[in-house]
Amino acid sequence: MSGRLGRVLEFHLRLYQVLGFHGLPLPGDGSPARTRRQLMAWSLFLLISLSGLIITCLTSGEEFLYRGDMFGCVNDALKYVFAELAVAAIYLETLSSQRHLANFWWLHAKLGGRRVGAASLRSEFQQYRRYLVSLYGMMCSELLLHLGLWQVQPLTNHMFLFWSSYEPLVCLTYMRNIQFVLHLELLREQLTALERELGLLAEYSRFASETGRSFPGFESFLRRRLLHKQRLYSDVYDMLKCFLGAFNFSILAVLLTINIRIAVDCYFMYYSMYNNVVNIDYYLILPALLEIPAFIYASQSCMVVVPRIAHQLHNIVTDSGCCSCPDLSLQIQNFSLQLLHQPVRIDCLGLTTLDCSLLTRIACSVGTYMIYTIQFIPKFSNQYM
Description:
GO biological process, one term: signal transduction
Structural class: mainly alpha
Number of helices: 12
Membrane topology: Multi-pass membrane protein
Largest sheet: none
Distance between the termini: 56 Å
Oligomer: single chain
Protein name: Gustatory receptor
Pfam family, one: 7tm_7
Function: Gustatory receptor which mediates acceptance or avoidance behavior, depending on its substrates.
């Protein structure tokens, strides 16, 4: 990684290095090649250790899985299996996608180099406020729910074994999800800056058109600025492709793991109520209900900026006396075609676009299978298990 990072960003990237999610040395690290090898070895160690933990939980004779009946046992096993899928995707992608991630941060440093001076800590908190609210808001909600739950819920041997082994996996998938949010926030920041700068060009051209006041070479100035903005957009688009290349598989695995956890806990919640099982730990899915919307909101926030960029682009006045040459119109048309052929579309391996419509589909799928569960729940009695 090159360039200069703010204190807030550097602190959280260090955190991701500790978790094994970020395999690149940071600016200022001595011996970058050695640091990279150490980070890769640490990620591999975490992958093997966590995979061994999950296999032990699935095959052990201890009560890691619910032993009351087969329905609860299968639900717990599903959580472990999809957690293993997420862990494998996260760490294998960390080990194999170093080039894409390095290119992302190189482009970020290149675009960030336009800023002058060091930002204050307060301005950095303001800059990353969405990411910080997502990170620490859900961390606090998870902690408060655990503290409150274990005050009223009897801590059985099964619950102690299950949650002491499963909660670290939940936290890892959650932190990976928030890592996606961080990178999307960096993309959104560049897109909104480009939108503001194009808005200023549109205001300049509108003022010149309405007042007839400009300066010699005003049209050439506009064309040069538009060409510069086109190159900036091309760099931002390359950042997007690097982001997708670095996180594609783990995005699918993390979203699938969170979705499966929500689904099976919803099913088991109704099953527990129906059979009067004294178990309310399904309330711990409440933070998980916010994890996918947090990522979708960050993704949608990036994608909605591009139509606004196109709107500002076409607000540039080209038919006034000061800038009536058709070359400026051709430049705007060229930029518009670039926006059309290089869309900011954040998807999951091309399977689905990660926008708000995905939340509707998830809710519909969980609701549909909840109906199936309610219909067949009378058959899930002990004599059939």
